[in-house]
Amino acid sequence: SFCVFSFRSGAKLIAPLGSLVSRQKHTLPDLPYDYGALEPHINAEIMQLHHSKHHATYVNNLNVVEEKYKEALAKGDVTAQVSLQPVLKFNGGGHINHTIFWTNLSPNGGGEPKGELMDAIKHDFGSFANFKEKLTAVSVGVQGSGWGWLGYNKEQGRLQIAACANQDPLQGTTGLIPLLGIDVWEHAYYLQYKNVRPDYLKAIWNVINWENVSSRYAACKK
Predict the structure, then answer these.
(1) What pLDDT, in 10s, does the model give residues 34-53?
(2) End-to-end CA distance of the chain
(3) Contact of 101 with 54, CB cutoff 8 Å
(4) Per the database record, which ranges form the Manganese/iron superoxide dismutase N-terminal domain (predicted)?
């Protein structure tokens, strides 16, 4: 990532180009469980392809486009910077979204959240069942490829459901802080559920890692 501005006590600081040159390449994160750990809800073949092929491709392409962007910045070529942004958004979003997604799932998942997150869900959606129904409906309704999200609206201090197209990252495109993402690209379910997205969405609730979602919620409230 290459934020050119950082904000400290209201001051606008330009990051030196040297820091762009020496930046670390993005890498594919390890899964916190085996490929087959989420069976029968998500099978091992899907998880292996999804992680080692699809996510890896986003990471590789992100590294390539960042190199090109770095060159465009060094040359002061604004036209090239602008033309690279859709590819950056797609692959950067793909990397961000999947990095969250793997941690949102767990072989010990399912059930319902506890504590502050559950209180917030009840406050903002009426009940857990109502929340689950709404997020499922939004995820089913994504046209083509995309994601269903539970996010936190920091300005309003409340939970919010949103859908994003393709690999648009939630925070970068809506401002909501991502807590729980549901991938509804066909590569996330087709081998097991064919074109019946609602069956996949019904199954995924059995492996949602509420501890992870809760810790994300606690972090963004600090």
Answers:
(1) 999 999 999 999 999 999 99
(2) 24
(3) no
(4) 25-106
119 is in an annotated binding site: no
Q: Give the pTM.
A: 0.88
Contacts of 199 (CB under 8 A, 6+ apart): 193
Q: How far apart are CA 59 and CA 67, in angstroms?
A: 13
- Per-residue pLDDT tens for 128-174? 999 999 999 999 999 999 999 999 999 999 999 999 999 999 999 99
8 Å CB contact between 163 and 138 = yes
Greatest Cα-to-Cα distance within the chain, rounded to the nearest angstrom: 54
Dihedral sign from CA coordinates of 177, 95, 138, 127:
negative
Give the DSSP H or E segment for 211: helix 210-221
Kindly give, in sequence order, each residue whose CB lies less than 8 Å from that of residue 53, ignoring residues fewer than 6 positions away.
none
Q: Tell me whether residue 50 is annotated as binding.
A: yes
Q: How many CA atoms lie within 13 A of 55 on its CB side?
A: 23
Find residue 181's DSSP bridge partners: 149
d(CA 213, CA 181): 10
Sheet of 158-165, strand order: 158-165, 146-153, 177-183
**Percent share of the chain, pLDDT over 90:** 88
DSSP 208: B
Please state, in angstroms and rounded to a whole number, the distance separating the CA atoms of residues 112 and 130. 12
Q: Would the annotation count 41 as a binding residue? A: no
